[in-house]
Design a protein that fits this description.
The complex is a heterodimer of chains A (360) and B (169). By secondary structure, chain A is α+β, with helices and mostly antiparallel strands. Chain A has eight helices and twelve strands. Chain A has a six-stranded antiparallel beta barrel with strand order 1-2-5-4-3-12. The chains are: A alpha+beta (360), B mainly alpha (169).
Chain lengths: 360, 169
């Protein structure tokens, strides 16, 4: 009797051990499982799309019933909003031109290029430990793991499993989502951590960081995996915890863009005397050969681009490599004496160009 | 084995796989507020008690693995959870199998609670921080509520397709 009972438990023990091994393999990023999942999604992609269409239609129809009664007031509100947006559009175009002009004058390092693939959402999964979307674009469309997914309002998440024709998106609200962000204005760096709630938490904040409700949260681009400046959401303080109300809505997102961001590799900073901490007492001006390069923190403070602002405010030498002016520029060749540079406010490029012209 | 009996033998596993597919369809009736019920656990619970010969632990393992694959969760979460629930049922089969009516629903609620607790603990250790409890509780409640209409369906399949005879335990 006991023998048969023991032998009956052997399959149970084996199954339990296999399950534990499976969990450990998953922790070690077991590739065949992900491949199987991607393959399964690829094969069921058409079915998912077919199932999603009537469900979306039904959802829209049901949602539209409530809007039917306030069509007039909604129309009025949209007209007013449209008029306001048209005014803003004009202002934005003018500001964009001005920014381009300044960037040209300052010889700003061009932003890394990013291409995009537009895809449709064919599935939404909201499990207790996972919040994902399934898209109908995969490896064949050039989609790669880690790429950012955005909708018209802001960032939704990142690609984490790619099949041939489909891909899975891990949402910013997911428990496993961690992305580097910046709180603007102020340039406070943080990590946005999902927790399967609608408002992800801002983590790894610097000490004494000053923030307030309503500040913008954008991607910082640190690490080079995501483009900088993607709108993420609005800061909100809930029970003394800094959280982010996301712009994007995964439940209503229908068409999304997958950004193929190609960031150059960050060079390791070379330690030198210039990056060492400044002693307490006032130091004499540096000799001409060491002061030939401008201090890295000065230039970007005058740049209006979000990317450049984030890079400029961070006092790390690795960012300085991407924002300092090239040494062979005419403005530096004809720069004034090295003793004057550190004491001056940020030298605008047009003035230097004028100086150069005068010298010539 | 005749084709009819072979078909009857695979029906419980097929029901489990179908449950995994249905609960992971990309259609959210609750707008994503309530997680989908764990439909795959219902056939596992039902036939592990009624016809354990047709729902061995390997079948529970396979259904759990299918649930893992389709739900997008890390591998082994639901597999381990289903195996643990099966172990509970295996040890207390006579007690669970004797339940009827509300008792049967409560029995499933207990099994679903064990499955949810195991999944929650695995997630806690796997992610190394405590996951939110509310989605898990909501999923548990949704699963138990869905078992009420699912039980007559499972009973019908058992009577008309699989066969009402219980094998020896």
């Amino acid at each position: 009797m006991s023998r048969s009972r023991t032998s009956g438990r052997v399959p149970l023990l084996v199954a339990g051990l296999l399950a534990i091994l499976l969990i450990l393999a998953g922790k070690a990023h077991f590739v065949p499982f992900e491949r199987a999942r991607a393959s399964l999604t690829d094969r069921s992609g058409a079915i998912l799309k077919a199932l999603d269409a009537p469900a979306e239609a039904a959802g829209r129809w049901l949602g539209g019933i409530g809007h039917f009664f306030d069509v007039y007031s909604e129309n009025q509100r949209l007209r007013e909003e449209n008029a306001r947006l048209l005014q803003w559009r004009g202002a934005a175009v003018a500001l964009q031109d001005r920014v381009k002009h300044y960037q040209l004058l300052l010889k700003t390092v061009p932003e890394p290029s990013s291409a995009a693939v537009t895809a449709q959402v064919i599935g939404r999964s909201s499990q207790p430990f996972l919040e994902t979307l399934v898209l109908n674009a995969g490896r064949r469309n050039g989609v790669k793991p880690g790429e950012a997914v955005v909708d018209a309002r802001g960032m939704l998440g990142r690609i984490y499993v790619v099949g041939d024709h489909t891909s899975w998106v891990i949402l910013l609200t997911d428990l496993n989502s961690r992305i580097p962000v910046t709180v603007r204005p102020g340039g406070v760096q943080a990590i946005l951590s999902g927790g399967n709630t609608n408002t992800p938490l801002l983590d790894a904040l610097p000490q004494n960081a000053k923030m307030k409700d309503g500040q913008d949260v954008v991607t910082s681009g640190d690490g080079g995996l995501l483009p900088a400046g993607l709108p993420v959401g609005v800061l909100t303080l809930q029970e003394h915890y800094p959280r982010v109300r996301l712009y994007a809505d995964a439940q209503t997102a229908d068409e999304v863009r997958i950004l193929d961001f190609q960031s150059p590799a960050e060079p390791m900073p070379k330690p030198s005397d210039k990056v060492l901490p400044v002693p307490d007492k006032l130091t004499p001006p540096p000799p001409p050969e060491t002061a030939a390069r401008p201090a890295p923190i000065i230039i970007p403070s005058a740049q209006p681009s979000p990317t450049q602002t984030v890079q400029g405010t961070a006092p790390k030498p690795r960012h300085a490599a991407s924002i300092t002016r090239p040494e062979n520029t005419p403005s530096q060749q004809a720069a004034p004496s090295a003793e004057q540079q550190p004491a001056e406010p940020p030298p605008p490029a047009p003035d230097q160009t004028d100086d150069q012209d005068n010298n010539q | 084995m005749s084709p009819a009996s072979l078909f009857a033998a695979v029906v419980p596993v097929c029901c489990g796989l179908l449950g995994a597919v249905l609960s992971n369809l990309p259609v959210s009736l609750a707008g994503g507020v309530v997680p989908p019920p764990v439909l795959a656990l219902m056939p596992v619970y039902f036939w592990a008690l009624v016809r354990p010969d047709l729902m061995p632990v390997a079948a529970a393992f396979a259904i759990g693995l299918c649930q893992d694959l389709l739900s997008g969760s890390p591998p082994g979460f639901w597999t381990a959870s289903f195996v643990a629930t099966y172990a509970l049922l295996d040890r207390n089969r006579d007690s669970f199998a004797g339940l009827a009516g509300i008792g049967a629903i409560l029995g499933f609620a207990l099994a679903a609670l064990v499955a949810a607790a195991v999944t929650y603990l695995i997630a806690w250790f796997y992610f190394w921080h405590r996951p939110p409890l509310a989605p898990m509780v909501l999923q548990l409640v949704a699963s138990v509520l869905c078992y009420v209409p699912a039980l007559p369906v499972l009973n019908w399949i058992q009577r008309n397709i699989v066969g009402a005879l219980r094998t020896e335990f």
